[in-house]
Amino acid sequence: MFEERLRREIPVSEQNSHLEQMGLGLRLDRPEPDTIPTQLGGESYVHELISSGAPLAEVLDRLCSAINVEIGNVASVVLLADGDEEGAHTLAKCAARFGLSNFRSAGIFSRNGELLGTLETYCCPPRTATPSEIKIIERAKQVAAFAIERRRSEEGTRSVLEA
Question: What is the pTM of this model?
Answer without folding.
Answer: 0.70
